[in-house]
Fold this sequence. Notes:
Structural class: alpha/beta
Shape: globular
Number of helices: 9
Number of strands: 18
Mean pLDDT: 93
CATH superfamily of the largest domain: FAD/NAD(P)-binding domain
CATH architecture of the largest domain: 3-Layer(bba) Sandwich
CATH class of the largest domain: Alpha Beta
Bound molecules: flavin-adenine dinucleotide
Order of helices and strands: EHEEEEEEHEEEEEEEEHEEEHHHHHH
Low-confidence stretches: 377-381
Distance between the termini: 51 Å
Strand content: 25-35%
Number of domains: 3
Radius of gyration: 21 Å
Amino acid sequence: MNRQYDFIIAGGGLAGLSLAYHLIQSNLRDRAILIIEPQRKEQNDRTWCFWTNQPTLFDEIVCRSWNQLQFKSADWEGVIDLRDYRYQMIRGIDFYRLVQRALSNRENVEFAHTRADRIEDDENGVRVFTDTQVFHGRWAFDSRFDLSQFKPDLSRYHYLQQHFKGWWIETPNKSFDPQAATLFDFRTEQKNDVRFFYVLPLSERQALIEYVLLGGAEYDRELTTYMETVLGIQDYRILAREGGVNPLTDCPLPRRAGKRIMTIGVAGGRVKPTSGYAFTRIQQDSAAMVDSLRRTDAPFNVPAGSRYYRLCDSLMLQLMYRHGAGIQSLFADLFKNNPVERVFHFLDERASPRENLALMASLPPGQFLRAFLQTQVLHQI
Ligand SMILES: Cc1cc2nc3c(=O)[nH]c(=O)nc-3n(C[C@H](O)[C@H](O)[C@H](O)COP(=O)(O)OP(=O)(O)OC[C@H]3O[C@@H](n4cnc5c(N)ncnc54)[C@H](O)[C@@H]3O)c2cc1C
């Protein structure tokens, strides 16, 4: 007789492991959990940053935290004091190790290091097929997302790909201010795109320098030019590299993929379309699913996004798509003209109506009006 799991999680990346971690901290901690993940996750494949003014479940693995952020563009350079907030960095490898260690101590949690090929409902719950086995469960959570297969209807929705390429570097001399991370440095050719660098200093001699852009490019050449010409650092050693691609879209990604199948992470639309941030949203979503399971014995009762923020996301995507080079002045206005709490509340989709009005009033109205008239978002209102 096949074992019946309570929860089968396809994909043990950020979303899958976060859900499992939240489950074992709740009163569902003894339920049978299976995580299907082909990779052993023994490498630092990416680094997550996020802002917060609360303690988090992951405070012990925060490798660096900053109280100030720098903004650099042709029009404006400023230092943003985060006041009650802090901007935190977690290395992927530390997250994987922490969660895997917590899960491996539990008899009710298993890993299958293989690919989940198909997930479907059956009369008793769900069936998950790998190339050699079929696993049975009550609920499945699916974080598989194949970028090459994602083809939204572009006559209705926006879709951009956010490319990241990062170098962990070390310099022989003092080159960085460890007190302030650079959130945006737009001092690079925009090529009608949205292109910037961020600099996350660990110390005066070590930093992660990441290049972010919406179209593909010759990342290494751009990183070298930024390091040598803009930062003026000629002598450095690359300790490690990382990178990846994030989908930015307003095309809804359904949370229900079956009667007992729920999408999570990127696959569940947890990437904020206009910023690419997902870490905090994935933690909130994991907590909400666990709460829903506890209350209703089903995971689907999670907060739906608001129409207002969906419209804002669509407008921003439209601006990025059509007027990419103008984004830096818009972001400069956003940070220059608003207290940082208001910007974070807006990005976290929890600003009050008064904060939203004040924030909109601080931005050039022409740009938004033009985007509104050009955009395909009217069907979403
Ligand atoms: C380079 C990069 C940097 C980012 N930086 C930030 C940041 O600083 N802050 C932030 O908030 N967000 C950031 N994001 C966005 C987001 O937080 C991450 O993409 C996050 O990893 C998404 O979590 P996920 O679980 O959906 O995807 P992943 O973490 O990619 O996990 C998906 C997992 O599914 C597995 N998988 C794939 N196919 C199968 C299959 N058939 N069967 C089983 N498993 C499968 C993969 O091996 C992978 O482990 C970044 C994204 C990228 C790409």
